């Protein structure tokens, strides 16, 4: 027998299904946008538009801020570095369009998904033939959005190691491990973020496998170009 309650329950279930489907579409759309943010090949575009070169064919061959600094200098390298950071930060900030409650595992997990999408875009950029960089600057933007204080401290570790050793790769790896340690043992953090910080640190080390081998063989290039004094 058809009753008002039956109709009301059916309508509610239909609306719930529509709402869930719409939410899923929003989440998928935002993940795609985060990937597109990461896919902006800053160093490649700056090299081609302003200097007439493909940065991936010079220096270390890496499409990142460090190689841009090495090959094209500070005027090109600093904007590339800042924009790559902004890509990661903006991608994670897309969580604001979901309405997910703040400080919940659900929100943090989605932020991590957005950050991963941005990193994937940087390493495999749609707009540069899927040949990108290692994503360290973009990762810095991601962790700045997730946990600003540990991220800033990790960046400080990077700067100190870089000044002492002159190795960008070594600074990046130690900073990533330092961030994971701070999230794991110093700053109160949800388990999901602790696991993510550890995964990110391992990912940074994996993307620097060749650098590690060169460090062991004492053949890694030092970033002396960062410390050169201008001569009159």
List the helices and strands and how they pair.
Layout: H1 4-38, H2 42-51, H3 65-72, H4 74-93, H5 105-123, H6 136-146, H7 148-165, H8 168-186, H9 191-207, H10 209-216
Helix pairs in contact: 1-4, 1-5, 2-4, 3-4, 4-5, 4-6, 5-6, 6-7, 7-8, 8-9
Query: What is the multimeric organization of the chains shown?
Result: single chain
Helix-strand makeup class:
mainly alpha
Would you list the SSEs in sequence order as H and E?
HHHHHHHHHH
**Number of DSSP E strands:** 0
Q: Please state the overall shape, judged from the principal axes of the Cα atoms.
A: globular
Number of domains: 2
**What are the low-pLDDT stretches, counting only 5+ consecutive residues below 50?**
none
Helix content: over 70%
Intertermini distance: 94 Å
Rg, alpha carbons:
21 Å
Helical segment count:
10
Biggest pleated-sheet summary: none
Mean pLDDT: 87
Strand percent estimate: under 5%
